Amino acid sequence: MKWGAVVVAAGRGSRMGAAENKVFLPLAGRSVLARTLEAFERCAAVTEIVVVVAPGEEARAREAVREANAGKVAAIVPGGAERQDSVCAGLAALATDGALVHDAARPLVTPAQIEACCRSAERHGASALAVPVKDTIKIADGDGMIASTPERRTLWAVQTPQAFARADLMEAHRRAKDEGAAATDDAMLLERLGRKVAIVEGDYLNIKITTPEDLPIAELLLSRRRQEERSFID
Ligand SMILES: Nc1ccn([C@@H]2O[C@H](COP(=O)(O)OP(=O)(O)OP(=O)(O)O)[C@@H](O)[C@H]2O)c(=O)n1
Ligand SMILES: C[C@](O)(CO)[C@H](O)COP(=O)(O)O
């Protein structure tokens, strides 16, 4: 199957509290978006990338594409009010049968993880990168009291990329829109139709840049990764 990626970058980054969209903040000398695009550019399984940006941020996105030397970027399209709307806009511009969806705000994703999601989706129909939850999770009632404790061994913290047959995901988005269903990730849209999504175990380093402390952590992780790559070559 040919794989294309929708990289969604059209959020506001309100929890980051920066003066600009967090995906354009610098991370080890390049923007967060450029770092993310580099990973997809380097993944052999991906043939095409669509970047979804907030209207008015197209020029900044083009700059990130240049920084990343991302020749696979086929289109930069405007996103919508919610992440779900932005994914939908990206899917419409993608030409491949396979569709990966990824948050621009997860710049530490690796080409190997992207490839693993593609292979798992080819086998199972759809897949999502995730890690086992380490903490004990509580469900609270409306008064801030603990209501119950779900069995931890069944819990996974889901990340992106998530991989689908493009037609299946477009249909799931169409159904969700018609039925007024909102989802914080794309796997949820297939789940609600009773479709299976396979978990691909990723790693805890594929963090989402969400709040200010995430940026220095990502810098540290990137520099450690570079050191490891250098010592492997030496
Ligand atoms: N309308 C939206 C909202 C989010 N995103 C993208 O979806 C990813 C994950 O969303 P999140 O981390 O929540 O980003 P923001 O919405 O930008 O952050 P916040 O919720 O703090 O405003 C990000 O890459 C973001 O740019 C998007 O493309 N379009
Ligand atoms: C898709 C996602 O990154 C999976 O962890 C996450 O759900 C995005 O959520 P957010 O509310 O947009 O931060």
TrEMBL record:
Lineage: Bacteria, Bacillati, Bacillota, Bacilli, Bacillales
UniProt cross-references to PANTHER family, sorted A to Z: 2-C-METHYL-D-ERYTHRITOL 4-PHOSPHATE CYTIDYLYLTRANSFERASE, CHLOROPLASTIC
EC number: 2.7.7.60
Keyword set, alphabetical order: Isoprene biosynthesis, Nucleotidyltransferase, Transferase
Marked site positions, Transition state stabilizer: 15, 22
GO molecular function terms attached to this record: 2-C-methyl-D-erythritol 4-phosphate cytidylyltransferase activity
Protein name per its UniProtKB record: 2-C-methyl-D-erythritol 4-phosphate cytidylyltransferase
Site (Positions MEP for the nucleophilic attack): 152, 208
Keyword flag Transport: no
Cross-referenced NCBIfam families: ispD (TIGR00453)
Protein role: Catalyzes the formation of 4-diphosphocytidyl-2-C-methyl-D-erythritol from CTP and 2-C-methyl-D-erythritol 4-phosphate (MEP).
Family stated for the protein in its record: Belongs to the IspD/TarI cytidylyltransferase family. IspD subfamily.
Domain of life: Bacteria
InterPro entries, A to Z: IspD, IspD/TarI, IspD/TarI_cytidylyltransf_bact, Nucleotide-diphossugar_trans
UniProt KW Glycoprotein keyword: no
Catalytic activity: 2-C-methyl-D-erythritol 4-phosphate + CTP + H(+) = 4-CDP-2-C-methyl-D-erythritol + diphosphate
Principal EC category: transferase
GO biological process: isopentenyl diphosphate biosynthetic process, methylerythritol 4-phosphate pathway
Pathway involvement of the protein, from the record: Isoprenoid biosynthesis; isopentenyl diphosphate biosynthesis via DXP pathway; isopentenyl diphosphate from 1-deoxy-D-xylulose 5-phosphate: step 2/6
Naturally occurring in which organism (per UniProt): Cohnella nanjingensis
